[in-house]
């Protein structure tokens, strides 16, 4: 049963890592490559959709500018279109060599929208963690029902699962609060 607990820890850590990636993509007042690196780009010449970071180098030479250097010049238009349609409030410009993406200061209204987005990401992560808890609780209850573990072991394992869940939910809350503070920072 300890193997199940280790597997549960791995599943919960995966949910946390996914949340960190999602939170990194939420725009703050500063330009960071993670803001756009996962934007899906529909590359017409390749006939497929790829993340932006697989098509170009993304740099942030200063806090208000992103510079995207496509590896294949035929993808310029596709990358520009993807950045515009990503609903990040960014307006790229293309000089034939690089795509410059100025990152404007956030308005108070946009900051509130981003805070809502951060809270939604946190809630989705908590739901994933609770689904993991439910899955392992069901596994342990089934094992007790089949006689593989005793009732005392079941209670110990369920308490363990709840403890892990509580710790992870607290971590989610802390990460969401930190990101909210970062978004609201002027």
Descriptive report:
With 186 residues, the protein is α+β, with helices and mostly antiparallel strands. The protein folds into 2 domains: 101 residues, Topoisomerase I, Chain A, domain 4, CATH 1.10.132.20; 70 residues, Gyrase A, domain 2 (2-Layer Sandwich), CATH 3.30.1360. It contains 4 helices and 6 strands, in the order αββββαββαα. Helix 1 packs antiparallel against helix 3 and helix 3 packs antiparallel against helix 4.
Key words describing this protein structure:
186 residues; alpha+beta; Topoisomerase I, Chain A, domain 4; Gyrase A, domain 2; 2 domains; four-stranded antiparallel β-sheet; two-stranded antiparallel ribbon; 4 helices; 6 strands; 56% helix; elongated
